[in-house]
Specification:
alpha+beta; 11 strands
Length: 244
Amino acid sequence: MKKPLSLLFICLSLSLMASAQSTQNTPGRYFVQLQDGQLVYANKIQLKSPIFKSNHFLLDDSLKYNPATVVAYQNQEGFYARVDYGNSYDAFAKRILDGPRIDRFYTSRTTFDYGYGYSPYGFGVPHTSRRRIYFFSKDNGPLYLINYENLTSALADNAASMDLLRKYRRQKLVNTGVSVLGAGLLAAGAISSIKESQDPSGSLQVSPLMYAGVGVLGAQFVINLFQKDKLTQAIEVYNYQLRQ
């Protein structure tokens, strides 16, 4: 009876040793990519922003890395890449589209408005809002701001995408013209209303030009609300045709 028990104990010991060795050799689920291309794996990655200390990445509650040394990272929330465009955006943008060649990212920027609101002291009450800023990368390259000029250069080898970008350009020119027209009608209507209100009766007269300006701008807003962004479509078509 002692021999089978001894063999069982040896087998269990070897199994536990193999399991421990396998765990040690298995990289973590997530990683940070350093400036030199090195990948450091971990099972838990956090970007810490303490009040009285410098920002840092914390891996598995032990390793620390300066964000300036990191170009990209993957954690439980997704994949993030460094944003080098401008100084007012967050350091890293989150990937929301993983395409065959074109990836899409976004980050958020907080804006402060002081000119609106009311307080008992007569000062404007500050209002904060967050606005998304969108970027793209081609073939895992650096991030670029999504705009007509950058996409025209990146998608130049795809005719369907270029056709969508040309439509975007024409649409933007039309929108600019309509905005100028609507604003002009409002301004002309306001001037006309002021002049007409200076008659002896003193009654306020609203010029029809103001109604026309409001109508033009309102119609433009509704039309644009239901139109899909041509820049996003150009990226989607580029990736879709590569999958075919």
